[in-house]
From TrEMBL:
Name of the protein: Thioredoxin
Keyword Electron transport: yes
Domain spans labelled Thioredoxin: 1-103
GO biological process: cell redox homeostasis
GO cellular component, one term: cytosol
Superkingdom to which the source organism belongs: Bacteria
An MF annotation (GO) of this entry: protein-disulfide reductase activity
Length: 103
């Protein structure tokens, strides 16, 4: 399950374990394509990876902090450290392979 989070929640929720945060906006076409892929992945990897979404229109501080200039951007963290920053659409198999490296 993907949890929508705010800037205030970001650091605490992504501080431990492996997390994927999707930075997106409702008007973004590629974001709408990426969303169902992440939904599927969140079900398959439940308990192994924390999945979060940050709407950059409503929550701009975290996006600014991590230099996110294009969306969708996927930020993969392990124990609070950024491991990958993926810009644009990515298919499920590629994302699963990347996440599996950090589990």
């Amino acid at each position: 399950m993907i949890q929508a989070i705010s800037d205030a929640q970001f650091n605490e929720l992504t501080a431990s374990g492996v997390t994927l945060t999707d930075f997106w906006a409702p008007w973004c076409g590629p974001c709408r394509m990426q969303s169902p892929v992440i939904d599927e992945l969140s079900e398959e990897m439940e308990g192994q990876v924390g999945f979060y979404k940050v709407n950059v229109d409503e929550e701009q501080e975290t996006a600014r902090e991590f230099g996110i200039m294009s969306i969708p951007t996927l930020l993969i963290k392990k124990d609070g450290e950024v491991m990958e920053k993926l810009v644009g659409f990515h298919d499920k198999n590629r994302l699963k392979d990347i996440l599996s490296e950090y589990i």
